[in-house]
Give the backbone structure.
Amino acid sequence: METSVHAEAEMTEQPFDVFARSCPSRETLEHVTGRWGSLTVGALREGPCRFNELRRRVEGVSEKMLSQTLHALERDGIVHREAQPTNPPRVDYELTPLGVEVADRLLSLIHCLEGNMPQVLSARQAYDATRGGL
């Protein structure tokens, strides 16, 4: 017990650096900014959802990928899973306070990109015209 408390204290005192290969923040960043993670976190910012509601909201995600994404985000403390003891069982997912903070920042980026899509599409068209496309 004493060893794990000491190790935990050391972990919280060391600075985290996402650019360092061994930094645990790198894995969390991947969970949040990957395609399904960012869409899931963004969708949950609208409020708690059941699994199938979330799957319908995040078009194109498979059950397996959504399940894996939710497990990773729950493990990182970004998503809370609440199982209701009903028949059939009801499971709701919602953001934790950390998840809300992450979602707000992520949605700022999403809105920035959405608002600047005409520029992006124009840049793509110019690039493709000079380099022959992808």
Notes: The two ends are 55 Å apart (CA to CA).
